[in-house]
Amino acid sequence: MTDRPFSVLVLCTGNSARSILGEAILGQLGAGRIAAHSAGSVPKGAPHPGALRLLGRKGIDPGAFRSKSWNEFAGPSAPAIDLAITVCGNAAGEACPVFIGAPLKAHWGLPDPANARGSEAEIDAAFEQTWHWLELRVRALLNLEFESMDRAALAAELARIGQMEGAV
């Protein structure tokens, strides 16, 4: 047990949609237990407007989020990362980033709501669906006593969580 919260980095390629939502949900629901971060291997430079609208509807300040490179989490001054979660849909042909280092790794692949087309309402519905699937996973994680679990047991639970509803 450490004197700091469990640090989770949510990764995707662009860091504009799923990983931003994952960071927001982990930060909100895991407050005090989890320090949430997100990044991308090839960041888009800005969060997707649909992600920002959803954060606002959820009462979360969208101005607190930015699209950033995972290089920010690789240097000596970077925060320690306990768990790196990829949320890209590699089964859908997306390239998923692989975080280098010693943290525990998990894959929670989901369809990319940034690829949704249609009216603003249809795009917002895709983001709401992704939020729902991520929230299910985060709540499952928070139901675990992950702070005291051994790595193998936690890895098995993380893999099970990754196969929940919506997995790709």
What does it look like?
The radius of gyration is 15 Å and the shape is globular. The protein is an alpha/beta fold and 168 residues long. Strands 2-1-3-4 form a 4-stranded parallel β-sheet. Helix 1 links the parallel strand 1 (6-12) and strand 2 (34-40). Helix 1 (18-29) crosses helix 3 (120-142) and helix 2 crosses helix 3. The protein has helices at 18-29, 49-57, 120-142, 151-162, and strands at residues 6-12, 34-40, 83-86, 104-107. The protein has 4 helices and 4 strands. The mean pLDDT is 91.
Quick take:
With 168 residues, the chain is of the alpha/beta class. The chain has helices at residues 18-29, 49-57, 120-142, 151-162, and strands at residues 6-12, 34-40, 83-86, 104-107.
Largest sheet: 4 strands, parallel
Please identify the structural class as seen in this structure: alpha/beta
Largest beta sheet: what is the strand line-up?
2-1-3-4
Average pLDDT, to the nearest integer?
A: 91
Number of helices: 4
Determine the fraction of residues in helical runs and give it as a percent range.
25-40%
Strand content: 5-15%
Helix and strand arrangement:
Elements lengths: L5 E7 L5 H12 L4 E7 L8 H9 L25 E4 L17 E4 L12 H23 L8 H12 L6
Parallel strand pairs: 1-2, 1-3, 3-4
